[in-house]
Amino acid sequence: MFPRPLAPPYALLFLTLEPLSTLTGAIATWVDPVGYFGALVPGNFPEGEGLGEAARMRVRMAVGQLGNCYFLLALLSSLGLRAVRTHVRDPAAQEVVVRALLLALAIADITHIVLTLLPLPSSFALSPQTWNAHMWGNVGATAMLFLGRCAWFAGLGRGAVEREKGRKRR
């Protein structure tokens, strides 16, 4: 078993794959915000060409802010979890901090999926075969990260860190 809260499979998922995928999303929103906006929902939806200049500015701002949220997730996953592994020596304390961070990210996973699917017609939202890469990234990749977090919470593939006997939890 592994003495640290992030065993190798979880370290790969949360310290490498998640930051890379969210950083990729951030860059995509910054490079082409109007194109990103138009590609969020596949089908016969206008991809920005019918937008007036004021709407284009709003789209650039809103999608740029979305990109900043993706960037923040990349930083939290990468830098936050690495800092815990590097600077918190007590494995039980690491466990508490990692658990709190992964719980916050798991809640955000669920809200992200719900807020992505909720505005869509159910005939589209429940037909993944019609989704484009953006939909799969927003729903499919997020669901996989959520399942990875659930596996971590369930203790799959990692050693549990024993709490000191008699230690009070605050």
Count every helix, treating DSSP H or I runs of 4 or more residues as helices: 6
Query: Helix and strand string, N-terminal first?
Result: HHHHHH
Task: Give the termini distance in whole angstroms.
Answer: 27 Å
Q: Radius of gyration in whole Å, from Cα? A: 19 Å
Biggest sheet record: none
Helix content class: over 70%
- Mean of all residue-level pLDDT scores: 84
Based on CA inertia axes, which overall geometry fits? globular
The count of β-strands is 0
Structural class: mainly alpha
What is the strand content?
Answer: under 5%
The unreliable regions are: 162-167
Description:
With 170 residues, the protein is mainly α. It is 70% helix and 0% strand. It contains six helices and no strands. Helix 3 (53-87) packs antiparallel against helix 4 (91-117) and helix 4 (91-117) packs antiparallel against helix 6. The protein is globular, with a radius of gyration of 19 Å. The two termini are 27 Å apart.
Brief rundown of the structure:
The chain is mainly α and 170 residues long. The protein has helices at 8-31, 33-39, 53-87, 91-117, 122-125, 133-154. The protein is globular.
